[in-house]
Amino acid sequence: MYIESKKIYIYIHFLIHRAMTTDKIDYSAFLDSLLKGDRAYCSRVIRNELKNNPSIFELYEQLIRKSLYEIGELWENNKISTATEHLASAIIEAILNEIYPEVTSTDKNGKTVVLTCVENEMHQIGIKMVNDVFEINGWRTYFLGINTPIGSLIRFTKENQPTLLAISVSLYFHLPDLQKMIQQITNEFPELKIFVGGQAFRHGGIEVISSYKNVVFLPDLNSLDNYLKKPEKDEQRGTFSHC
Fold first, then answer.
1. Which CATH architecture has domain 2-103?
2. Closest CA to 222 of 83, 32, 62, 98
3. Is the pLDDT of residue 185 over 60?
């Protein structure tokens, strides 16, 4: 009896120790590996986390977005070079492309969204994660990526007639470009709902979009997911913050 009880105790202790050591992500090590260009380590961390926790929201918010924001701040404060910032961003984007088939859904609900970055914006990782959330919720997505000229975006929107448009802006000094883009889009499509967001809004700028009735802002991917799951009659104005 004593031996069996001791075996059970040892096994429980082993399970607790494994949970505390194996599954816990070392964020500092992940960030350091990004800055050093160790794609293999970063990919392994993300795949292990996705295996242990199939929901992408914690992974995207607590690991990827957190590290990207910190890298952006390091670059803005001249603590890392442009080359290092590009290297880290390229690793993250490559890994997002690796896991894309594992996080999206093939079931579609008939709704469509065009996703783009504001004109002159060269950062698209945030809007790629937003794209994944739409696809998880059954939307067909048109991902246009970085630096889409407003004229080209308007033509594409006319041709494809999306349910809504999502625009991302990463740098604060691109907010005037965002306002210009929103104004031209609403002139052409006065009833089209527009989602906007990005790291730029960490420094303010909500007033840029507050006067537009069809512009929506949500603070994170979980809020976006909750918004997309609402019945249409319950949808209210909000905001989203990515890229």
1. Orthogonal Bundle (1.10)
2. 62
3. yes
Q: Where are the domains of the chain?
A: 2-103, 112-240
Burial 119-136 (b: 16+ CB within 10 A, else e): bebebbbbbbbbbbbbbb
Q: pLDDT tens digits for 26-44? A: 889 999 999 999 999 999 9
Whose tokens are 């859904």? That residue is 105
Residue 97: partners with Cβ closer than 8 Å, 6 or more residues away? none
- How far apart are the C-alpha atoms of 162 and 144, rounded to whole Å? 13
Cβ atoms 181, 224 nearer than 8 A: no
d(CA 223, CA 97): 23
Q: Is 42 exposed, middle or buried (0-12, 13-18, 19+ CB in 10 A)?
A: buried
Q: DSSP state, 138?
A: T
How many secondary structure helices (H) and strands (E) does the chain include?
Answer: 10, 6
- CATH class (in words) of the domain with range 112-240: alpha beta
Q: What does the block give as tokens for 208?
A: 């840029």
Whole-angstrom distance, CA of residue 194 vs CA of residue 212: 9
